[in-house]
Fold each of these.
Amino acid sequence: MIRSVWRYSHLILAVVSSIFLLLAAVTGGILAIEPISNATKNYSITGLDEILVSQTIDRLKSNYDEVLELEVIPSNYVIASVLTKDFENKTIYIDPINLSEFGPVEERSSFFNFITNFHRSLFLKSAGRIFVGIISFLLCLIAVTGLLLLIKRQGGSLKLFHRVKETNFEQRYHVVLGRWFLVPIIIISATGVYLSAEKFELFPSYSVKHNRNEIAQDEYEQKEISEFPGLKNISLDQVRKIVFPFSEDLEDFYQVQLNDREMLIHQFSGKVVSAQKYPLVQLGSILSMKLHTGESSPVWAFILLISSGSILFFMYSGFAMTLKSLNRKKATTFGYALRDEAEYIVLVGSETGNTFDFANRFCKSLKSHDKRVHLSSLNEYATYERAHKMVIFTATYGDGDAPASANHFLKRFEQINPKHLIEYTVVGFGSMLYPNFCSYAENVHEKLDFHPSFKPMMQLTKINEQSFEQFRGWANNWGAKADIPVHLELPDSSFTKKKTEDLKVIDISKLNVDNTFLLKLKPQKKIQFQSGDLLGICPPDARRERLYSIAEIDRYILLSIKNHELGKCSGYLSSLEKGQIIQGKIEKNLKFHFPVTAPSVIMICNGTGIAPYLGMIQKNNNANIHLFWGGRYTQSFDLYQTYVDNALKERNIRSLEIALSREGEQHYVQDLLLEKQDFLVSSIENGAVIMICGSISMQNGVMEVIGNLLQSRSNLKMSDLEINGQLKLDCY
Ligand SMILES: Cc1cc2nc3c(=O)[nH]c(=O)nc-3n(C[C@H](O)[C@H](O)[C@H](O)COP(=O)(O)O)c2cc1C
């Protein structure tokens, strides 16, 4: 709830101030270049804290006919306004020790003057200044709410610089850049607000007033400047400006402006005749000026420059994310049946809209079979007159919390009594990078499970990182149970736009007991690929590709394919003959490549999921690989036997464990893991990489076993494996 309030205020503020913000950011960025370019003059004096003001004045007075002013600017440049012995008036950068002259102080360029005026008031005079002040204030609020959101998102301020988990470009870099630039942006905007408030006299007035009447002028003891008590121990780093006495009149003093106070010093006795500390308001003004303009240091000016650039990116990415999310929600729920007319109810829990996308593909497929589908958010949960099936797709946020479109669901669920029995399925969308992987989906599943009016149709399925392949695997299973062939529209990925490659059939095995076969293909051109990459094949007359995991063996592609009864693609591939040329697209699948360094690799798979491993075990000598395979019958493994035997002989595989579900002990690959739990836990603790390939239900079972083992026997958590790169998944 609080997160939503911050999110909406962050967004509303950004929309209102966007145009002015754009102009202020661009002009601010340009202005930050000025101190950087000034710094290239290299007139900076080091060790100002060791140079006494009295000695500098002494030197200046003996070197020039008259000295009018001495100024120390924030970049540590020392400027003197003098009248030379040849009666020439000069304002120059000097070295205060040897009085060498670096060069004249030039007038500010008209370009920077122009940009400064625009930045301060947008050429709208006082009205413009008010606007700019308000924009600075809004920017400050946006940055503060952004920082709060970021802290919340990362799981606390101590985790602010932990790995960023978002994979979407705009979302990811909104977070990555936010961690670095939100604080400088808060400083820029807060100082901007301060300077505007000062301009409009919102602070109490603070001009320094010296009480000259109290100054005794008649009696004084003349002293050398180096002996002046008022300048004792004052070094140049404390000075902003010194105005020299204009005449020898006793009422003319040295007016010394220091960082924290202003003094009048008697020009002959050197005594302090008046000293006034600057009020806090003025100190704030001096500091704000330094921080807002970057004049104090070129490094800070550079930070201001890139922070201004980052504001432009935040504007772009913020709006892009919002538009995407709004469009998705609008486009998806529109055009489906009303809730009391629909047979199928699809409810979605989403924060940024991606889950709506998946739900929409699923609903479209049902609609193409003339099914009446109602799609809405989980928060709109109600009673449904005719529905007999319900599918819930939901993301998880925060610490296992509900996403925005589901935050009222559980409460509503308790208040609303369903009118009849409904078969339900829950699909969780989440990320294994979070300790509470899909835990909100688990909550929802549990709630429905305990309710007498809801009957589970399938187990809870968890989709990691919005994997389309995993989603498709689930959709196929659901379709088989509901007796509806679910054909999902492919996401518009770079893959669909890829060029196809000609591939020649080199070998094709006979179907085994499980209707599975091996297909060996040779690319007709030199192309880069490796085991774990994917091959997309679209059979003639079909609209969509089917993806297969590749084994790369001696530059050939080896696939293991199950010929599904109604499978268009597997049917097409099983009918191929040697020498035939087919088309396919290769997709790099970096997340499932063999790890570059790992003390050991535990490969877990079932059925045809062994395919990518057949290439990996052949290629990686002495890699300390342990293979766990689950299948139906002893004969099911015959297809792979020679590849695995070779790897065992070469000692590439150190152990092989097979679980058969229809023979002998009739168990599954996850049961093998339980049997070998000592080995499994100690390997994981020593940094082993776990690779899992095969069906989603096998993946869920395996993950549950590993998760439970870690919980009871180790300090590591599943999310640690993901964060350490110890977990590689390719399930569908
Ligand atoms: C700030 C934040 C917190 C998240 N917390 C979790 C979490 O606790 N558990 C989880 O499984 N996924 C978590 N995720 C991942 C999302 O649930 C996942 O990316 C989901 O697909 C997003 O769906 P949506 O775009 O429909 O909101 C989190 C993502 C973000 C950005």
Amino acid sequence: MIPASILIISSDSETQSLLQQAIAKKCTCPTSAAAGKSAALNCFDPQTHELIFIDSRTVDPKLLTTLADIQSPLKNHTVVLLSHGRKISLGMEDEIPGIYEILHWPASGQHLASCIDRALERCMLIREKKQLQLDCRCHKIFAKIAGQSKNMQKILDSISTLAHGNETVFITGESGTGKELAARTLHRLSSRSGSPFIRVHCPSLPEESLIDEIFFRASDTALQTTDSHTFLNRARGGTLFLDEIGDISSRIQDKLLEYLKETPEPSYRSANIRLLIATNRDLGKKTESHAFSKELFEILSTRHIHLPPLRRRPEDIPPLAHFLLEKQAYKLKRYGRYISPELMKRLMAHPWEGNIRELENTIIHGLLFSSSQEIGPDDVLLSGPKPLGPCSAALHQDNYRDAKEEALKGFNHIYIGRLLKRSNGNISLAARACGLERQALQQIMKRYDISPVPYRPKTGCDGGYPE
Ligand SMILES: Nc1ncnc2c1ncn2[C@@H]1O[C@H](COP(=O)(O)OP(=O)(O)OP(=O)(O)O)[C@@H](O)[C@H]1O
């Protein structure tokens, strides 16, 4: 392994060529030379220059401090200082960040060769360490995502590739396919991972607030204000995730287009924010009916991650189901449960309109209601009434009465559904089990449209109770 490239900072052409010749005997990597401080600062690229030779006659070793400002500290670079008769004390060496070796110049051919060997080896070790750290980080981050299938691997590859950059990334897919998870993963893999990730749910903000908070109309002076609550200020240095942009007004589409085309929109630049944008709408179709800007759609599509619906990738269902079971079993403290082969078959055949979120809810239901370690088809509600979280839908209602009614509906579907499952759809037995009169339970079932039929055994006589 050889360093990506070497930089020699020396105004002395003889020193430059001696070093270049000695380096050429050891490796074939590109070597560039800078004759002075400003040339050095101009051509120094922290990403590619792994090995730097600095002639102390040409530039004050303090240049290193300046270079360190570019990528501070220079601990991932190997710096060799040519002392050239100038006495450089250990104390001074201590003050220079990132220095690896001081080579008294001119050096004998043997000294120079072994110094280059050591420096190249250090470059290689640093690169290996960086690669291992990256692998380790990716492994940890991807551990939160299930996906052994080719489909998922392709998606994970796109996420890793696009993570390294500052460009806007467009994430599409039906509801529950994992767009937010993809956006968060991209952020965590990027160099911005130490800074905030802020999600803006566009439909829940009025147009004016969206423009005020995100697309400052006047200038970035607004950004200098102490209003630390605006999305832009909260996302400073990090990632702003604009979720569900499918229905944004044409005025906001224009603002977004303006930003993406890099016309003056100083807010983003001074706040140093990366934009990730998601939608569950088919924007291609919306452009045909002129409901969405074609130009904006085309620009967004240049860096695009699409998450296919779960029904189009049934091979992902078993690994996802096992992954989600492990995740939720840990959360709910229901250890050791497993999915029966029969249930797995049913999961594979289900259309999953709600995608991975629906699969996750099904697994949660199974974990909560299975009476043994094995979660079977009877412990989940795949057909018949939908497994409603008692409060999830209610939380989206503004009106208190509507919200309460929604919560009661969810509660009754789950609670009575569980009773009916135990009684094989027999209402009298279910009523007895919960301490209600049969008629009272029947009234509740009628009110919330709960049918006992899906809970009754399909074969008829075995296990059916007379009403
Ligand atoms: N590949 C995956 N591995 C594990 N969990 C996943 C995966 N994809 C999605 N999930 C889980 O599924 C749920 C839904 O995912 P997410 O919220 O990211 O979907 P979404 O596409 O953003 O949905 P919406 O459009 O409704 O906002 C989350 O709990 C998420 O952690």
